[in-house]
TrEMBL record:
Alphabetically ordered keywords of this record: Magnesium, Metal-binding, Molybdenum, Molybdenum cofactor biosynthesis, Transferase
Cofactor(s), by name: Mg(2+)
Organism: Slackia equolifaciens
Pathway this chain belongs to: Cofactor biosynthesis; molybdopterin biosynthesis
Domain MoaB/Mog intervals: 192-329
The protein's name: Molybdopterin molybdenumtransferase
SMART domains xref list: MoCF_biosynth
Length: 422
């Protein structure tokens, strides 16, 4: 277990610290459709061969390869069409030399056929190719051409999705074909969202002088939901030590993760740090990043508690970069970081603060085809709208005071899922 760290730590240390206090939650069985996008908690096996029979990969004619082995435009071969096999049907007779069977995509291959020749390269001799007619072939066919073999995708008893694998939409279809209708997966974490501040009012109210609407709570609940968690917005807590203590303690008894916003700095009415320290163990108070220096993390009665700053951008950055990976880990995911890429800066940027600067920015592709990143003109930590219109975070590292137009800098993509290779 990580030791308490009251001094300022790096973003990477903060991420590792929080990760060290979470693990995948218990498993639950969900209907197959609800498993899309979630992590399989056990190996999943097929209950039969998929497909259980060899079938036609396209509309055409099932035949013996030997019958048209010598076919050519100069010396075509004509065969009698003796039957038609629609999808869902079967031909149980025998294909004699000089015969073929009209067959539809997905239909079971006649047992003695060894190829399917597609319609487009077959000539109909004064007919439509239906049973009782004759058709002409002007080229040979390869054995097993246009046939999907029995068990081509999966064998009975074969593991088709392994534990730890994220089930994609195609995987849902694959599992359905393998007879898997329920999936064991890790339970989604229940996350309590607590907004702190005597100045806060619900969005349904028009704030008076000295008050603001509770936008953070809604943004953080949306972030939690986007991360696959189940958020619950608890009532706004005023700047009152005793009331916040009661709220946090109660939340820790009912939820898997508690997130607060506001009251994370060192003012007279900033109480989340003493609350966590009194109720449990306090592990972190500041992170070397801007916005978002004041980040409180601890554990109360076995439940992680994270105190985010009150400024919207600072709270958002803390959630996105530190809390989100932890919530993903609780659901069994192993890819926990948004993609990081390099892009050319479009304008000079200076910074006086030695902390790592996280600029809300937009990546586009320039006329040359290179990726270019343009930081938003207004980098105030009090703005949500700038984040809404951004698609990345442009990073100026610790210790760097200036970057120039044309420099390649690191960018963290906010609109691309973890694990995506670019």
């Amino acid at each position: 277990m990580a030791e308490p760290s009251p001094s300022m730590i790096s973003l990477e240390e903060a991420q590792a610290l929080v990760r060290s206090h979470v693990s995948p939650l218990e498993t639950e069985i969900v209907p197959l459709l609800d498993a899309a996008g979630r992590v399989a908690a056990a190996d999943l096996m097929s209950d039969m061969d998929v497909s259980p029979f060899a079938h036609a990969a396209m509309d055409g004619f099932a035949l013996h390869v030997a019958d048209i082995a010598q076919a050519s435009p100069e010396s075509p071969v004509d065969l009698d069409v003796i039957a038609e096999v629609p999808a869902g049907g079967a031909f149980e007779g025998t294909i004699e030399p000089g015969q073929c069977v009209r067959i539809m995509t997905g239909a079971a291959l006649p047992s003695d056929a060894d190829a399917v020749v597609k319609y487009e390269i077959v000539d109909y001799l004064g007919s439509n190719g239906m049973p009782g007619s004759r058709v002409r072939f002007t080229a040979p066919a390869k054995p097993r051409a246009n046939i999907r073999e029995a068990g081509e995708e999966a064998k009975q008893g074969e593991v088709v999705v392994r534990a730890g694998e994220v089930i994609k939409s195609a995987g849902v279809g694959f599992l359905a074909g393998c007879g898997v209708t329920e999936v064991p997966t890790y339970r989604a974490p229940r996350v309590a969202i607590i907004s702190i501040g005597s100045e806060l009012v619900p969005p349904t109210e028009r704030p008076g002088i000295g008050h603001i609407r509770n936008s953070n709570g809604y943004a953080l609940a949306a972030c939690a939901r986007e991360a696959g968690a189940v958020p619950t917005m608890l009532p706004i807590v005023p700047d009152d030590l005793d009331e916040l203590t009661r709220m946090v303690k109660d939340a820790c008894s009912k939820f898997d993760f508690v997130v607060t916003s506001g009251g994370a700095s060192n003012g007279d009415f900033d109480f989340i740090k003493p609350v966590v320290e009194t109720l449990g163990e306090l592990y972190m108070t500041t992170v070397n990043m801007r916005p978002g220096k004041a980040q409180t993390f601890g554990v109360v009665d076995g439940t992680p508690v994270f105190g985010l700053p009150g400024n919207p951008a600072a709270a958002y950055m803390g959630f996105e970069l530190i809390i989100r990976p932890a919530l993903l880990a609780m659901q069994g995911y192993t890819q926990l970081e948004r993609p990081h890429i390099q892009a050319r800066l479009t304008a000079d940027k200076k910074k006086k603060d030695p902390r790592r600067l996280l600029m809300r920015a937009t990546i586009t592709r320039g006329e040359s085809g290179d990726l270019e990143v343009t930081p938003a003109a207004n980098q105030s930590s009090g703005l949500f709208g700038v984040i809404q219109r951004s698609n990345c975070v442009a990073v100026i590292p610790e210790g760097v005071t200036q970057v120039h137009a044309g420099d390649e800098i690191e960018c963290i993509l906010l609109d691309v899922d973890e694990g995506v290779v670019l």
